[in-house]
Structure formats: C-alpha cells, structure tokens
Amino acid sequence: MPLAESCLRRLGGWALLIALGLNLRPIISSISPLLMEIRGATGMSFQSSAWLTSLPVVCMGLVALLGVRLEARLGERRGVALGLLMILCACLARLLCGAGVALIQALVPALIKRQFQQRVALAMGIYSASLMGGGGLAALLSPHVATHFAHWQAGLGVWLLPALAALLLWWLLPFTGSGQRLNAPSISLWRNRRAWLLALYFGLVNCGYMSMVAWLPAYYLQLGWSATQSGSLLAFMTIFQVIAELLMPALAQRQSDRRPLLAISLSAQALGFSGLVLWPLQAPQLWMALIGFGLGACFALSLILTLDHRRDPREAGQLAAFVQGVGFLINAVSPWMTGWLRELTGSFISAWWVLILTVLAMLVLTRVFSPSSYRESQSTSVAPQPIPTGSTSTSA
Fold first, then answer.
1. How far apart are CA 376 and CA 324, in angstroms?
2. How many whole angstroms separate alpha carbon 233 and alpha carbon 298?
3. CA 334 to CA 340: how far, in whole Å?
4. Is 58 within 8 Å of 329 (Cβ atoms)?
5. What is the pLDDT of residue 386?
6. How many Cα neighbours within 13 Å face the side chain of 359?
7. 360 or 222, which is more confident?
8. What would the pLDDT profile of 236-249 be if each residue is shown by its tens digit?
9. Read out DSSP for 38-88?
C-alpha cells in the first residue's frame, strides 16, 4: 500500500473515532440547559422531568447488554451505521436515540481493541474525549439555538446534523474488517463475579456525570444564574473532562496498574462535589474543573480497565458491552434519584452528598483491581476463544 494512502487511512480512522464520539452525548446534555423552559411548557415535576435524561440511559444499558448478539447479526459496519441512523431520527423520538447510542457504544470498544492494538489506551482516551466534547458542545449551543429559533425543540433537533455527517463519514470510510459478521461463540459473563464487579464499578464511578448533566444547570438556575450561564458552566466542566480523557489514558499507556490514576480521578470528584455543597458560589469554576477532570478520567480509565481483562478483541468487546449495559442502567437511576431528593428536600444538596459518599466507597473498592487479578478473573470464566484470522493478541 502506498505511503500516502496508508497515512490517509490512518487519519480517516482517527477522524471516524472522533466523529462517532461526538454524537453520543448531545441527546443527554442538550436537555439540561433547557429543562426549566421544558418544565414550564409541559408542567412536568422535577422527578418526572428526570426521565428525559434517564430513559435514554436505560435504553443505552438494555441495548448494550444485547451488543454481542447484535454484533454477530449485523457486523460493526452495519451496526454502527444503524446506531447513527437511529440517533439522526431520534431528534424526533428520544428513546430511539438512547438505543442508537448504546448500539455504537457496545461495538466501539472491540473495534478499538482490534484497530489500535498498540495504542488501545490512547485511542480510548480520544474516543472518550470526543464523546464528552460532544456533550459539552450540546450544553453550550442548545440554549443559543433555542433562543435563535424561539423554541426549545430547535435546541434539541439541531443535533441531527452531526449524526448525519458521522453516518456519511462512517459509510464512506469504514474501519478495516468492520463489515464482517462475527459468529464465534460468546463468553459467559452473567455468572462471572469479576464482570459484575467491573459493571458495578463502571456504573458508580460515572453516575455523577448523569446527575451533573441533568441537574447542574437547574441547581445554578435556582441560585440566580441564567440558562445560558448555567449551560456555559456545564460546558466548562466538559473542557476538563476532555483534558482528563486525553491526559490520563496517555499516562495509562505507560503502566499496567490503573489504580493510582483511578484514585487520583476519584479524589478529584470527591473534592469537586464537596465544593459544590459547601461553597457553590465562591469558586464554581474550580469545582467544575475538579468534577470534570475526575469524571472524564474515570470514564476512560474504567473502560481501559475493562479491556485489560481480555486480550482477545472480541472477548474484550463482549465484556465491555456487558459492563456498559449494567453500568448505564445504574447511571439511569442517578438523575431520577437526584430529582426525587430535590422534590423530597427542596434542595439538591442531599443528592450531592450521596454522590460524595458513592465516590468515597468506589475509592476504597479501587484497591481490588490489581493487574495480578486479571489472570485470575480469566481463569474463572470459560476457556479463551480462538483469535479471529487477521487479529493479533495484545497484552493486558
């Protein structure tokens, strides 16, 4: 293959990864800056309006649990294309969008494990950064679009444009081998304690993101901020998510033990949430920087930790789909619980305390994920499946 064509293919692969990530969070984060306007137009309570965020996440979890069967039936190329098409159409039907996001998220980890074998951590970081970057752009731009067109629905519907662009890019420049249907038998995970532990960990270290996206603007609206200001604060948080998702996986690439970086990330979350409770107006940008850095790093590192547990790309993808499926179902409870506590107590403070305690509990749990335990977790599951032709095993 000529050098110029090879370089073009590599650049196309990175561009596709970024385009996919950018489309996986606007459906969630575009709601929160417009939530008060939506509640005023519909008469929804805090608790019921939380379902606008929770229901897509429930679909993300349920569809991710079907990721193995969907991969075998559709293949990556058709599966991701279908997911993008569902996101595009879901500007009119939000539940469909949750399913589209889940379909892509279930397939991308295995794709990364196979396509970026020597740079899995870096590729996961770039994918995660683009994912959170899309969420931040939605939070920042949706209020402006809604104001310009004088209707909140325009602020949500505009996100069909990047979905259309990503769908065209994906179909014109697919990853190598992405059209194959993989019929190899799946590994057993439902009775695997390590798989459940990883899923619980993924869900709880990341549940703060769903609460922040759903309720942070509403929290600051109650403190006297405007919709644009509160949406900008969420976008500011996203900047530090993106920084963490680029920096921490790059550091993770140099060492096999993920626990020190995860401990730093969880500590940043705990400090940020504490500031949100104790001094919300004194230094909001600092608290958002800490929360954003901690959440961004935890999302990328917890997925990298999951992929570490399987050398074979297909097995790693199946494990990641299971972990994300269960984890997103846990995430879906977070915005609903925050809305319920807000209704019950009249304040968001109690919900922020729950997040602080959750983060501290996960900080303690982090110690069990030593690299020496990965071999043990593999030996307690079914025997490793043959590596598909053309694939190369990577080190955990």
1. 22
2. 20
3. 10
4. yes
5. 36
6. 27
7. 360
8. 888 899 899 889 98
9. HHHHH---HHHHTHHHHHHHHHHHHHHHTHHHHHHHHHHHHHHHHHHHHHH
Q: Answer for the pair 61, 333: CB distance below 8 angstroms, yes or no.
A: no
The token pair that represents 34 in the structure block: 């417009």
pLDDT at position 296 is 92
DSSP state of 368: G
State pLDDT tens for residues 294-346: 999 999 999 999 988 988 878 888 898 899 889 988 988 888 888 889 888 88
Buried b (16+ CB within 10 A) or exposed e, 327-358: bbbbbbbbbbbbbbbbeeeeebebbbebbbeb
DSSP 318: H
CB 342 within 8 A of CB 348: yes
C-alpha to C-alpha distance for 294 and 363, rounded to whole angstroms = 12
Minimal CA–CA distance to 289: which of 242, 249, 344? 242
* pLDDT score, position 381: 45
Mean pLDDT over 124-129 rounds to 84
User: Looking at the predicted structure, is the pLDDT value of residue 388 above 50?
Assistant: no
99 C-beta neighbours (distance < 10 Å), count:
21
